[in-house]
Design goal:
The protein has 3 helices and no strands. The longest helix is centred in the C-terminal third of the chain and has 33 residues, at 38-70. It is 75% helix and 0% strand.
Length: 71
């Protein structure tokens, strides 16, 4: 059990270091024409943020159910 926690912790800290780009092809084509790319970065960060929230919520609910069933 101890090694499993270490591996999960390692993966948890490794995931944020991955550079993600989540724009669709149409959004990318429109936003690449801008010179500063600030709008493209903002859109990309928003997409990644909106994509991550459901996974976090499902993880929290899953952990709560696990703890409830373990008692």
């Amino acid at each position: 059990m101890g090694k499993k926690i270490i591996y999960i912790s390692f993966a948890f800290f490794l995931i944020p270091s991955i550079d993600l780009e989540a724009q669709c092809a149409m959004c990318r084509a429109v936003l690449e024409s801008e010179e500063g790319q600030q709008t493209a970065r903002g859109i990309n960060d928003g997409i990644v943020y909106l994509m991550a929230i459901p996974y976090v919520l499902i993880g929290i609910v899953g952990y709560a159910v696990f703890r409830l069933l373990k008692k």
